[in-house]
Design brief:
The complex is a heterodimer.
Chain A (H helix, E strand, L loop, with lengths): L3 E2 L2 E5 L2 E5 L8 E6 L2 E11 L2 E6 L11 E4 L5 E3 L8 E2 L16 E3 L16 E2 L4 H4 L4 E2 L3 E6 L5 H11 L4 E9 L1 H13 L6 E7 L4 H20 L3 E7 L1 H14 L4 E3 L2 E2 L2 H9 L3 E2 L5 E9 L8 H9 L2 E6 L2 E2 L5 E2 L2 H4 L7 H23 L6 H18 L7 H15 L9 H7 L8
Parallel strand pairs in A: 9-15, 13-20, 13-21, 14-15, 14-16, 16-20
Antiparallel strand pairs in A: 1-7, 2-3, 3-6, 4-5, 4-7, 5-6, 8-10, 11-12, 17-18, 19-20, 21-22, 21-23
Helix pairs in contact in A: 4-5, 6-7, 9-10, 10-11
Chain B lengths: L3 E8 L2 E6 L7 E7 L2 E11 L2 E6 L11 E8 L1 E4 L7 E2 L6 H8 L18 E5 L6 E2 L4 E7 L2 E6 L8 E6 L3 E3 L4 E6 L5 E5 L2 E4 L9 E3 L10 H6 L7 E5 L6 H11 L4 E7 L3 H10 L16 E6 L6 H18 L4 E7 L1 H14 L13 H9 L3 E4 L5 E10 L9 H7 L4 E2 L4 H5 L12 E2 L7 H24 L6 H18 L13 H16 L7 H18 L7 H19 L6
Parallel strand pairs in B: 8-21, 19-24, 19-25, 20-21, 20-22, 22-24
Antiparallel strand pairs in B: 1-2, 1-6, 2-5, 3-4, 3-6, 4-5, 7-17, 9-11, 9-14, 10-13, 11-12, 13-15, 15-16, 18-23, 23-24, 25-26
Classes of the chains: A alpha/beta, B alpha+beta.
Chain lengths: ~425, ~575
């Protein structure tokens, strides 16, 4: 039988050290204390000293408590029975459903061979012009929503999830407020999406270590569905809590911090998760949308900074709008050449003009005289913000492109917008709508 | 004495091993896990204990598990058949791995880098009795569009005599094609392939030369303003989203070199996939053959084992040096060197070394310098000339160039193409900053003209700054025209449309031609009645150039638009002068 160890040598933070031999790296153990039973994972071996991070936290653990090694690593049962279910960060049911049994899969499986990936080619339509026109979302993309606390990022996430055409939705909540958890559950339920969804939820009240497991649980399950030829959308909110949990464990383990207390491997840790987004050759795909709240609205903070280097673009959510500057979908070029022939040109022209408009707005704020050109730019900016940027706008891509031409025609002469003559001839509205 | 050791500690991808006999710094060892063998490298030795970085996931390893030491340094296999291959950081062919294991990279699988069964048509180039030194050509085999030289192994010292040489025929990479003998009678069998430790530069050449020949990238702002020479080094630091990778991809397609080695180090897998899937279909603008025939990809993407990132850049530069030894011009693109530096930092942290700035190890600078110094233009023993050019991207934390990796890189490179968030936000691509960037290589387009154009850019920038304070009305018309000229130069020459099939790549000849047209406009003294007329003139001129750039060079359409541009400029000059 499995050996029971009862000598806890050290307790620090949520990490305990026990004397044990013949233990595999990253093996799971069960810790029994007066407060109940919790899982724990081996995170360092030094001679016969084995360090474990305790999922439920180390509070209340006694030096003579029982630690039993299970001989396997963190795993989750996989199958269609997962659909419609809600679990916590250690994979236990959070709804009233039965516990999981059988068909175990390990978390953090090996990386995908790049030779078996394909270039993503399918656009994900969202009905939001700031995404569809300017930063098209593409199947198998990994994309964060950068935001500050207080912005409607969870609403945006839910809206994209409900409108996107995917087979399976996997939701991972980290450090979620209980209200937000209920919001997501009810939204999914209301739209009838719960039956094709699996939720792993760690709320702010749960132990920190469980937060670390949420993305891994989500992605391991997503990967299995994708291998079964399903198109999977993974929603993660909020990755900043995940990174902070990493920091907490690293500091407890006395690692040398690299930047603002975060461990040196923050990039690799985040990348290992985000890179699970994939379009398999001959199977399904995984698309990852994740919320990253920026501490102090600072994009150079280590979490958004490292994230930006990993993901294929980012959406900035600011003042309730998706900001056109800084927001970027790196994969848009894979799809926007085949949507409509004016898509790219419209996208670039609108943004360039809007950038000039921002400069003019600054000048105006400082009380400078406005030239005729400035007046045109200001008008353009107002229309752009009102008719396209507002998050409540919900129109298909083609309509949105027509609207762009219309706004241009209402503000400028064809010669002023710097668009190739052939496109002007084809799309410039002869009679723009009068607003 | 046993060559094996036993694991005493495990911390993520670092294991500590107690060894019985000896350990060599940087030697390869394998940790046994059931029937799997996990590759590792010795990175520190203390007494009878060695610290090893494992190139794989360490889960499941136990205290007391066996580690086999091989006595060999981490090496790359060099020979015919490298071109067109896609390797991981340890030179495992990824396509073969996919055939074997499907979707995922299973740990502990190591395959031969070169195809063992393929036969190559060997032609001897020396006679028995000839005296040869390391790097001398013994014979050749055709490899795609190149004549692949089979050379005396670089590891052989002094002069050797050819005892036997194989007749022309088809041989595999393991067949002996020559027998060499040293003065002391030791014999050495030469096959079509050889091994070389990746962290040691190959030095089998006569002398290093000063890089003075252009390496044309067909990106206007680079070739005209911040050129790179063959055998030179350059770096592209930039915040995320500024277009580092797109710039690297364009360079890998159009660069005027024989061979491109791409080291995708710790970056997104998706980007490698684009190269992987598109290159076989793309035509090499120089030869008309598939681009893949001149490309080698070493990819260790961000989710692949961290320790192998370091191996990947060294493997890549070793392969680049190998082809340089054949008198070829090789370009190595490393994306991104920051990920490699971070891998060093992670390991340094686990070794509990005293951290330097931002916790990077103190030896970071010397490691980066040594890496870039492996670039160079060399004259080989037979008089031919070969080169390795290194272009590395840097991903500075927070887009701040003051950080250690960028600073260490800037000290050793010959050109700096700094990308700016400001320019990429305004969709001014390529987002290379025209005022901050620099190049120490000679200008190949028009040195005087470029100096003048940069002057305009600088003054235009100053006027723009000033206008933000005093407003357009407080700016003199002359200053305003300078500002418009700078904006015009930026819009029609510095910016380039990466998604237009003509504009994406401008050959040197066209650059010279167009630059002179632009320069002429910049040097012309226009006198406009007011600012709105001036703005309108430059907007319309910009529009003409936007139509001009996507036309084929010297096509009727091209000439037509050029004539129209000349007319417009002429018309503006002959307008009645404003009343002053």
């Amino acid at each position: 039988m499995q050996k029971v160890h009862t000598r806890v040598l050290q307790i620090a933070g949520n990490v305990i050290t026990v004397a044990a031999t013949d233990v595999g790296y990253q093996e799971l153990a069960e810790v029994r204390s007066a407060r109940g039973t919790s899982l724990a994972q081996v995170i360092r071996i030094q001679g016969d000293r084995v360090a474990l991070q305790v999922f439920a936290g180390a509070r209340g653990i006694a030096t003579n408590d029982e630690v039993r090694f299970l001989g396997h690593r963190m795993r989750i049962s996989f199958g269609p029975h997962l659909l419609g279910r809600i679990f916590d960060g250690s994979g236990l049911p959070r709804d009233r459903g039965p516990a999981l049994e059988g068909n175990w899969i390990e978390l953090n499986g090996p990386p995908v061979n790049p030779a078996k990936r394909i270039i993503p080619r399918k656009m994900v339509r969202t009905g939001i012009p700031m995404i569809d026109v300017f930063n098209t979302l593409v199947e198998s993309q990994k994309l964060p929503i950068f935001s500050v606390a207080g912005e409607p990022y969870n609403e945006l996430l839910a809206r994209i999830a409900m409108q996107a055409e995917v087979d399976i939705i996997i939701f991972g909540g980290m450090g979620l407020k209980y209200d937000d958890f209920l919001f997501f559950r009810d939204t999914f339920d209301h739209h009838g999406a719960l039956v094709r969804a699996v939720m792993f939820v760690h709320t702010a009240a749960d132990p920190t270590v469980e937060c670390l497991l949420v993305p891994d649980l989500c992605l391991a399950v997503a990967e299995q569905f994708a291998l079964q030829n399903k198109r999977v959308l993974v929603l993660l909110t909020d990755m900043t809590n995940f990174a902070d949990a990493l920091k907490e464990i690293a500091i407890t383990m006395e690692q040398v911090p690299s930047n603002r207390g975060y461990p040196g491997d923050l990039y690799s840790q985040l990348a290992a998760r985000y890179e699970k987004a994939v379009d398999f050759e001959g199977a399904g795909s995984i698309t990852v949308l994740a919320v990253t709240t920026m501490p102090g609205d600072d994009v150079t903070h280590p979490i958004p900074d490292n994230t930006g280097y990993i993901t294929e673009g980012q959406f900035y959510l600011r003042n309730g709008r998706i900001e056109p500057f800084g927001s970027l979908s790196r994969l848009k070029q894979q799809v926007n050449a085949r949507t409509r022939d004016d898509h790219r040109t419209v996208m670039n022209t609108m943004i360039q003009l809007y950038a000039q408009c921002r400069d003019t707005q600054e000048k105006q704020a400082m009380g400078f005289q406005m030239s005729t050109w400035d007046q045109k730019l200001l008008k353009f900016g107002t229309l752009f913000e009102r008719e396209l940027m507002d998050l409540s706008v919900n129109i298909p891509l083609e309509k949105a492109l027509d609207l762009c031409w219309d706004i241009l025609a209402r503000c400028f002469d064809p010669a002023e917008v710097g668009i190739k003559t052939s496109l002007i001839e084809k799309y410039w509205p002869s009679r723009p709508s009068s607003h | 004495m046993s060559k094996d050791g036993r694991i005493v500690a495990i911390n993520a991808n670092m294991i500590t091993v107690e060894f019985a006999s000896r350990a060599i710094q940087n030697e390869v060892a394998y940790a046994r896990l059931g029937d799997q063998r996990l590759k590792a490298e010795v990175i520190r030795v203390r007494g009878t204990v060695a610290d090893l970085q494992v190139f794989e996931d360490t889960r499941g390893l136990r205290h007391g598990d066996t580690v086999e030491f091989t006595g060999e340094l981490l090496s790359a296999e060099l020979g015919p058949g490298l071109l067109g291959m896609v390797y991981d950081g340890l030179q495992n062919p990824l396509k073969k791995l996919a055939e074997l294991h499907g979707f995922f990279l299973r740990r502990g699988t190591y395959l031969d880098a070169l195809d063992r069964s393929r036969r190559w048509d060997f032609t001897p180039r020396v006679q028995p009795g000839a005296l040869v030194q390391a790097g001398a050509t013994l014979g050749t085999v055709p490899e795609g569009i190149f004549t692949h030289k089979i050379m005396v192994p670089f590891s052989l010292r002094d002069t050797w005599r050819v005892v036997a040489i194989a007749p022309p025929g088809a041989y595999t990479v393991d067949d002996t094609i020559a027998v060499l003998e040293a003065p002391n009678g030791i014999q050495h069998n030469v096959t079509l392939c050889q091994r070389w430790p990746v962290k040691i530069p190959i030095r089998a050449y006569a002398e290093r030369l000063r890089p003075n020949e252009p390496m044309i990238s067909r990106i206007r702002i680079i070739d005209t303003f911040f050129p790179v020479a063959k055998g030179g080094t350059y770096c592209i630091p930039g915040p995320f989203g500024a277009g580092k990778t797109v710039l690297q991809q364009i360079t890998s397609r159009y660069a005027d070199v024989d061979i491109v080695v791409i080291a995708a180090c710790g970056e997104r897998a998706g980007e490698v996939v684009e190269t992987l899937r598109e290159f076989p279909e793309l035509e090499d603008p120089r030869t008309g053959r598939s681009l893949m025939e001149r490309t080698i990809i070493i990819c260790n993407t961000s989710s692949m084992p961290v320790a192998a990132r370091e191996a990947s850049v060294y493997t890549a530069v070793t392969i680049a040096e190998y082809y340089r030894q054949m008198g070829l011009h090789v370009l190595l693109l490393a994306d991104s060197t920051s990920r490699w530096a971070q891998a060093l930092r992670e390991m340094s942290g686990r070794l509990e070394e005293i951290p330097g700035e931002e916790a990077f190890p103190a030896y970071l600078e010397s490691i980066i310098a040594n890496f870039y110094e492996r670039a160079g233009l060399v004259r080989l023993a037979d008089g031919s000339v070969g080169s390795v050019t290194i272009g590395g991207t840097v991903s500075p934390a927070g887009g701040n160039f003051e950080e250690p990796v960028t600073q260490a890189t800037l000290k050793v490179v010959g050109a700096f193409h700094g990308l700016s968030r400001e320019r990429s936000d305004a969709r001014r691509y390529p987002a290379i900053h025209p005022l901050d960037s620099w190049s120490k290589y000679p200008n190949f387009v028009n040195e005087e003209g470029v100096r003048f154009a940069r002057q305009i850019l600088r003054r235009g920038h100053e006027v723009n700054q000033m206008m933000k304070v005093v407003g357009e009305e407080g700016t003199s018309l002359d200053d305003f025209i300078v500002y418009l000229k700078a904006e015009f130069l930026d819009a029609v020459y510095l910016q380039q449309d990466a998604f237009d099939k003509v504009d994406v790549a401008t050959p040197l000849e066209r650059q010279r031609h167009v630059f002179n047209v632009v320069l002429h406009i910049l040097q012309t003294d226009f006198s406009f009645p007011d600012k709105d007329t001036a703005r309108r003139f430059f907007l319309e001129l910009t529009q003409e150039f936007k139509n001009w750039n996507p036309t084929l060079f010297q096509s009727p359409e091209f000439n037509q638009i050029e004539a129209r541009i000349a007319q417009r400029v002429h018309a503006a000059l002959t307008q009645p002068a404003p009343a002053r």
